[in-house]
């Protein structure tokens, strides 16, 4: 990696403060963590330009606004800052209030960063004021100017400014951050759907360094999950928030100072609440011996996040009812991961998971009076697996690119042979180096079970007595993070998954299982 000695000058009360500092062009949290060269983001800028040119965009300046700090209502404190994801993918810069530009037409890296011009007092409260050369050398960009110079600098380029225009398939929202600087009204700003889709398509296919980052976040998450699973057995660690605290602590110890989404740590019947752990339903309840716990948590590093779910018993042993539900979901995970390879559509995998679970529950006796096909036609799994099989994963936990450009969730109603009614966030063919989650589940949600009671065309397939026995399980989710390989897939996380392994590891047994790799050539 390129290292240089740089000197930068901070001005404080009229006195020049001269500081010598070795600046390295990589992101790292120190020993034992992953070094990520900022040249990765330079390569991303090149990939974006190639994608745009391939789609007929021959010239222009891509202009993105980075994330900014937000005050906590009317106070002088701020919400926790995270960089805007497209900006992070292109530049990797950790600072707020930046703008970035990328020239599309040239073969060289024609990149720009625009940084805020801080007042001298900044040095007193927030640290040395870094000059433009620090940003240029650290983030490997060709040109650095101040934000208050943007209007003049961009006007001289005489190039249309391209900003992304589109709608996020998960949130339904457009890009939140549009350019807002002095002089922008005099410039030719073009809202570009081509740019929106190009950014998403580039982010879908991870490069080798990004796969390494995803592996690192999964390594950290796996270790944190195993420790948290064991700690949850202690009599003085029986509040759900103890598990949230333990996971965050173990992740932070390994260099991951953030999690990629709110931690989901329910127990027993609360497992059926899919996104438990929010402010209205926080991780606060006590769990008891015999309860099944569900931990859905992922460590974040350089804004890339893992998303791993483990379901396990408090007290160390699965009940027979918990085993039935757990093993049905585990069989679905195995069936899907064995089927993944480039070209296979995730809609096929979603249907495969549903069929596998129905087959297992027919064998158990919960489902009855019909065939797998009849129950699929009746959409029975919309009650017990109301979610899609998985989603893209990367800089966002529900990452972009779940649908091909021009497509969206409206296509699910036309999936053959069974229309998909669940919120499937990902419905496109797998490609090599795509990273996504495999997370089938089986839930006993009271609201959905009430719906079942009022839907005779579904209820006829359910053994009511067996349902009553299984409802206390609450729900099971098993969530793996996988990367697509040329012939199959590799599971990035490494946690105990079988009933036997989970019980052994909870009891203090060592865990050194090999990473699961599937080949379907």
Can you offer a commentary on this structure?
Helix content is 32%, strand content 18%. It is built from 16 helices and 21 strands. It has a 6-stranded mixed sheet with strand order 8-7-6-5-9-10. A 4-stranded antiparallel sheet has the order 16-19-20-21, with helices on both faces. The model is unreliable at 1-21 (pLDDT under 50).
Mean pLDDT: 93
Q: State the low-pLDDT regions, or none.
A: 1-21
The geometry reads as globular
Q: Tell me what portion of residues adopts beta-strand conformation.
A: 15-25%
- Name the strands of the widest sheet in spatial order: 8-7-6-5-9-10
The total count of strands amounts to 21
Helix-and-strand structural type: alpha+beta
Span between termini = 38 Å
The radius of gyration is: 25 Å
Helical proportion, percent range: 25-40%
Q: Tally the helices: what do you get?
A: 16
What about the largest sheet?
A: 6 strands, mixed
Structure keywords:
alpha+beta, four-stranded antiparallel β-sheet, six-stranded mixed β-sheet, disordered N terminus, 521 residues, single chain, 16 helices
């Amino acid at each position: 990696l390129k290292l240089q000695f740089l000197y930068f000058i901070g001005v404080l009360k009229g006195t020049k403060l001269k500081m010598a500092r070795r600046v390295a062009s990589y992101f790292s949290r120190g020993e034992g963590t992953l070094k990520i060269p900022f040249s990765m983001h330079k390569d991303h800028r090149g990939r974006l330009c190639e994608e745009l040119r391939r789609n007929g965009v021959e010239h222009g300046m891509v202009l993105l606004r980075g994330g900014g700090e937000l005050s906590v209502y009317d106070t002088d404190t701020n919400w926790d800052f995270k960089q805007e994801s497209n900006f992070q993918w292109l530049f990797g810069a950790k600072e707020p209030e930046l703008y970035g530009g990328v020239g599309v037409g040239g073969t060289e890296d024609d990149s720009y960063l625009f940084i805020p011009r801080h007042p001298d007092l900044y040095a007193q409260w927030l640290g040395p004021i870094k000059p433009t050369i620090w940003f240029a050398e650290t983030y490997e960009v060709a040109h650095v100017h101040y934000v208050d110079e943007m209007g003049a600098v961009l006007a001289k380029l005489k190039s249309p400014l391209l900003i992304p225009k589109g709608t996020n398939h998960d949130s339904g929202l457009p890009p939140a951050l549009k350019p807002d600087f002095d002089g922008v009204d005099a410039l030719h700003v073009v809202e570009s759907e081509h740019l929106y889709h190009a950014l998403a398509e580039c982010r879908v296919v991870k490069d080798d360094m990004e796969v390494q980052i995803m592996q690192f976040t999964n390594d950290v998450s796996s270790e944190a999950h195993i420790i948290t699973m064991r700690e949850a057995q202690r009599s003085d660690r029986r509040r759900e928030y103890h598990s949230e605290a333990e996971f965050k602590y173990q992740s932070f110890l390994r260099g991951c100072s953030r999690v990629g989404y709110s931690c989901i740590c329910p127990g027993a019947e609360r497992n059926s609440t899919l996104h438990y752990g929010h402010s209205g339903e926080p991780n606060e309840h006590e769990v008891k011996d015999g309860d099944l716990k569900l931990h859905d948590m992922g460590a974040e590093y350089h804004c890339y996040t893992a998303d791993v779910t483990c379901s396990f018993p408090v007290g160390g042993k699965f009940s027979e009812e918990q085993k039935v539900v757990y093993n049905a979901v585990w069989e679905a995970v195995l069936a899907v991961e064995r089927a993944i390879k480039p070209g296979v559509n995730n809609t096929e995998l979603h249907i495969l998971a549903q069929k596998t679970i129905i087959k297992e529950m027919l064998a158990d006796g919960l489902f009855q009076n019909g065939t797998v096909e009849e129950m699929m036609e009746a959409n029975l799994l919309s009650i017990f697996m109301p979610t899609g099989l998985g989603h893209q994963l990367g800089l966002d936990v529900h990452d972009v690119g779940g649908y091909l450009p021009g497509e969206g969730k409206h296509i699910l109603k036309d999936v053959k042979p069974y229309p998909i009614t669940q919120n499937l966030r990902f419905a496109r063919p797998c490609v090599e180096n795509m990273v996504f989650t495999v997370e089938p589940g089986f839930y006993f949600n009271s609201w959905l079970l009430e719906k079942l009671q009022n839907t005779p065309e579904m209820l006829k397939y359910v053994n009511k007595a067996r349902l009553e026995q299984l409802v206390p399980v609450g729900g099971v989710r098993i969530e793996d993070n996988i990367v697509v390989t040329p012939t199959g897939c590799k599971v990035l996380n490494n946690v105990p998954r079988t009933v036997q392994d989970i019980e052994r590891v909870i009891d203090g047994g060592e865990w050194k299982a090999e990473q699961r790799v599937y080949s379907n050539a």
